Amino acid sequence: MTDQLIGAAPAAPPTDPEAGAKRTAKRRRLRLTGLVILGWIALYGVWEYGSWWFGSRLLPTPYEVLMSAVEIVESGNFLTDFSASVLKTFAGFAVAAAVGAPIGYLMGRYNYWRAFFHDGVTIAGTIPAIVYAVLSLIVFGLSNLGPILAVALVSAPYIALNVAEGIRGVDKSLVTMSEAFGRSPQQIRREVLIPTIVPYVFAAIRMCFAVAWKVEALTEVFGGRNGVGFQIRTEYQLYDIAAVLAWMFLFIVFMLIIERLVLAKSEARLLSWRPQERSSAL
């Protein structure tokens, strides 16, 4: 018996499930980071090959576009025109939220208001964005109100439909329980309905944000007096393709920063009360 105990292999130490999960998560993050880097390298290679195939006059190289972007930033036009485009985009979102959120609330809360608004909101959401851009220019001409109206018209239907879905998704038992405990309609609206529709509102903002800034830039291209679209039209008239691409990529980078640092952070802060949000933050 003693010889068997002496010759037996030592028992393996118990594994830590939490440490194993952390190692697995770390390997997954490294793998995803590597894939992202490979994707950018592939994009760079395709771009370089396209520049060689078509010629740098038709498709400037990444280096030429980068140098043009540096010149734009150093000239001071970057801050002026980008701030103008961003302010108009967010102003359009504010108008869309002020109009679309109440309509969505009525559609989700009351069946007769849903019947009244549903077809109009659905039709408004299916109209091409370029139609809104042209109509805004016809109505307001060469002014800052045109891009704001175009963004508002594109965004409002999405906000209304998502808010309506959020209201209809409210747990009826919570409303019934609140009424049983003597809560007023204002308290039910503030403490039950609004927290429920906040995720749907952010989903609507994320869904139409990519479309809205494109419409805003397109409206500026057609008839703006400032902004990124106006600068793209100016460089197009000068046939400076490198500058056109530089403005485009700068605008994309800027909007991605806004989406990641402003929208994502605001959503995480407003939804921190949800258990899944707290667990994901940890």
And the CATH topology? Answer: MetI-like fold
The assigned structural class equals: mainly alpha
Strand fraction: under 5%
Q: What's the overall average pLDDT, rounded?
A: 77
**What is the rounded distance between the termini?**
50 Å
Number of helices: 12
Membrane topology: Multi-pass membrane protein
Subcellular location: Cell membrane
Domain ABC transmembrane type-1: 82-262
Protein name: ABC transporter permease subunit
Describe this structure in words.
By secondary structure, the chain is an all-alpha fold. It has a single domain (67-271), classed as Orthogonal Bundle (MetI-like fold). It is built from twelve helices and no strands. The longest helix is centred in the last third of the chain and has 39 residues, at 185-223. It is flat.
Brief descriptors of the model:
282 residues, mainly alpha, MetI-like fold, 84% helix, disordered C terminus, membrane
